[in-house]
Amino acid sequence: MLDLIIRNGRIVDGTGLPAYRGDVGVAGGRLVSVGRSLEHATAGRIIDAAGKVVSPGFIDPHTHYDAQMCFDPYLFPAIEHGVTSVVTGNCSLSLAPVRATQREDFSAMFRLIEEMPKAAFDTGVDWRWGESFGGMVEAVGKDIAANVAPLVGHSVLRLFVLGDNARRAATADEVARMCDVLRECLDAGAVGLSTSFIDIDPSMHPVPSRWAPHAELQALCAVLGEKGRMLQVVHEFFDAGLTVSRIEMMADLSRRYSIPTTLSPLFHNNTMPHAVTQVLEAVERAWASGARVWPQVQTRPIDISWTLAERSLMFLVIPGWWPVLSLNTHAEKMEAFTDPLTRGSLVAGLNLLADMPSSNLTLNPSSYVVRQVGSDRNRDLVGRTLGDIAVERGTTPSELLIDLSVEEDLQTWFMRADIGHDNAEAVGAMLAHPFVHVGASDGGAHVGSFATFGDTGHLFSQYVRKTHSLRLEDAVKKITLDTATIWGLDDRGVLKEGKAADICVFDADTIDRGPEVASDDFPGDAIRWIRRQVGVHSVIVNGVETWSAAEGYVAGARGGRMITR
Amino acid sequence: MGHLQRDEPIIVSCVVGPGHDGRAEVVAELLYPNGGRSWLSIGEEALTRAVDAAGVTSLDGLTGQPWTVLVAGLDMPGLDMPGLDMPDINLPDQPVSTT
After folding, report:
1. Sign of dihedral through CA atoms B77, B82, B84, B85?
2. What is the pLDDT of residue A181?
3. Residue A560 domain flag
4. CA-based nearest distance A240→chain B, Å
5. In angstroms, what separates the C-alpha of A294 from chain B's closest C-alpha?
6. Any CB–CB contact under 8 A between B83 and chain A?
7. What is the total count of domains within chain A?
8. Is A238 in CB contact (< 8 Å) with chain B?
9. Is A151 part of the contact surface with chain B (CB cutoff 8 Å)?
10. Do A186 and A295 belong together in one domain?
């Protein structure tokens, strides 16, 4: 008798080969049958997948669940999107090894860069493992519903060895000590080292990794080379020339030490469309030279959100708005927004924006979406466009933006979607590029600014169904077997007998990300932004059904583990 | 702001676009006296301070300003950074060839 049978599914096995109809059997957390009929077999649990795709669980290679996984073993709501494995510790920041005396300094840096509310971090991260990387792996691995492949952060490594003054070059002895500590982390299961060339700490200084001379990075990469582990780099993504230089640097490290490397994020920007071409040509040259350099591209476009209570980038592009938003007090702003003359001027400025072809924020305010309301009576407005609501209320979108805000004492949140990385044709071509690694979701970070969940659903809805940039099988391969292969997660990413039973059952015609909604589930008072799944039927982690559309999150499901190499 | 010096770069454009980790930021393009160009990505908070320091009310107002108005955006209270205490851009000393 098997533990689980998934019957009559459309099997997309992760290899990119065409889908076919068949059954999948699971026992002891492993795939024991893939494709063969299990009509006469019995199992403790049977899932009818008729009409659904059965694929490997998705792997998210760029996340910051380091803090959330300490207090939320389900990484809510990542798993319901089909994500069964995540890479943590990106961007030079990991929760170990961190000395007890440096916890507050590190926490402040993590909270700033990854935008984690202090109350949530301080309440949720209990440092129960002490200081060591191995201790963290063991402690978190005891209570986790998804698989976690942890990186070691270069900034953390420097703090651990150099002490509080890590804004300097290390001595030869300190570099040697860092190499020893990195080796200990790799022995404890780290999948690689992450470093950043752009981030700043709370004192506005470059993070510790940015103070490392190249020779230090070479020494650390030599240690990575002993085990063939990954180097993850946050590069100067806004400057194509510097990015190309980084790619050449990473190619050299990859060849010299026989390691894979990945850089993130790589965006498409309509104002610099040549930049992506320039960067991808550099990547192709790197691969032609024998190096492994994987640029990560996220699937979701960039959004911007704002209220009329605070200044925002938005008001620097709407003619006439900045001085009003710069008024000192809430009362002064309210007075300005209700003054007929000022209101008329602001409406005119907003209308002007809609007619400015030279602006890179050209969309008419009718497309702005109500993201959150300040009063229950307006709750049904959430998710609707100003254009839609304006018609209903017999006003204009520009007037509605002001009037609704005033009605709610400036508590209304609005969102302007797709301000960047939104050229579907160009981004689709990037995602389909053979050297592009689909990732950079940043899951678990920026919780108060925007939702980092549902990028996998968006891959299928936007780039498989809408633009046809990728075949279904190729999209699945990108976020399963390709990712597992790039990161050396040999047991995962493919539906093959003997492999770990990480499985996602979904409807290829409907899978998507849901609307962005506020959630108050984190410790502390702050809300965060999330997206729920659409079109996912069931998610299995190491043979354990962890989430299903019918029953939600399964209480006590702890199929996950730390993926230690 | 101070008068534009001949030997300092100026801002030639500021556009809203993708920033680090998918946040909306502003990318400023700088033009150097020798014709070279470079780009800086500036987060919302720093940009707000830079706009205040420059005394302008729109992104377009930053165009033509010396690049130092962006540095002013980093001048936070309590900032322990006399001058520009920054590491060199950490690229290898020797050019790396991929061929």
Report:
1. negative
2. 98
3. no
4. 9
5. 15
6. no
7. 2
8. yes
9. no
10. yes
Q: Is residue A31 part of a domain?
A: no
Buried b (16+ CB within 10 A) or exposed e, A61-85: bbbbbbbbbbebbbbbbbbbbbbbb
Domain that residue B67 falls in: 10-72
d(CA A416, CA A401): 12
Q: Of A238, A281, A354, which Cα lies nearest the Cα of B42?
A: A238
CA A197 to centroid of chain Cα atoms: 19
Q: Which of A367, A400, A418 is the last residue of a domain?
A: A418
Q: Cβ(A487)–Cβ(A292) under 8 Å?
A: no
In a domain, B92, yes or no: no
Average per-residue pLDDT for chain A: 94
Q: Is the pLDDT of residue A219 over 60?
A: yes
| β partners of residue A102 | none
> Do both A198 and A259 map to the same domain?
yes
Name, in order, each residue with C-beta under 8 angstroms of A471's C-beta and a sequence gap of 6 or more. A464
Residue A333 lies in domain: 303-418
Q: Which helix (H) or strand (E) holds A85?
A: strand A83-88
Residues A447, A534 within the same domain? yes
Q: How far, in Å, CA of B39 to CA of B21, rounded?
A: 17
Instruction: Give the end of a domain, one of A418, A446, A473.
Output: A418
Minimal Cα–Cα distance from A545 to chain B, Å? Answer: 31
Same domain, A198 and A85: yes
Q: Find the closest chain B residue to A63 by CA distance.
A: B21
Predicted ipTM?
A: 0.76
Residue A11 lies in a domain: no
Confidence (pLDDT) at A358: 46
Chain A, 352-371: which have a CB under 8 Å from a chain B CB? 360-361
Q: Which of A217, A312, A322 sits opposite B57 (nearest CB)?
A: A322
Which residue has tokens 């590069």?
A235
- What is the rounded distance in angstroms from the CA atom of residue A181 to the CA atom of residue A130? 15
Per residue in B31-86, pLDDT (tens digit) is 999 999 888 888 888 888 889 888 999 998 999 999 888 877 665 443 444 444 55
One domain, residues A172 and A266:
yes
Kind of pairing between the strands at B37-42 and B24-31: antiparallel
Distance CA A179, CA A165 (A): 18
- A248·B96 Cβ contact <8 A: yes
**Best mutation site among B20, B70, B79, B85 for testing chain A: the one with the most A CBs within 10 Å?**
B20
Instruction: Give yes or no for B6 touching A (CB within 8 A).
Output: no
Q: Are residues A312 and A249 in the same domain?
A: no
Is residue A271 pLDDT above 80, yes or no? no
Do the Cβ atoms of B22 and A317 come within 8 Å? no
Task: Indicate the length of chain B as a whole number.
Answer: 99
Smallest Cβ–Cβ distance between B18 and the set A211, A313, A420 belongs to: A420
pLDDT tens digits for A102-134?
A: 999 999 999 999 989 999 999 999 999 999 999
Q: Tell me how many domains chain B contains.
A: 1
Tally C-beta pairs within 8 A across A and B.
144
Q: Any chain A CB within 8 A of the CB of B94?
A: no
Confidence at residue A411, expressed as pLDDT on a 0 to 100 scale: 95
| CB contact (8 A) between residue B74 and residue A204 | yes
* Whether the predicted pLDDT of A183 surpasses 90: yes
In a domain, B84, yes or no: no
User: Chain B contacts of A245, Cβ < 8 Å?
Assistant: 91
Distances (CA, A) of A379 to A312, A367, A534: 24, 18, 21
Q: How far apart are CA A515 and CA A543, in angstroms?
A: 30
The amino acid that residue A457 corresponds to is G
Residue B58 domain flag: yes
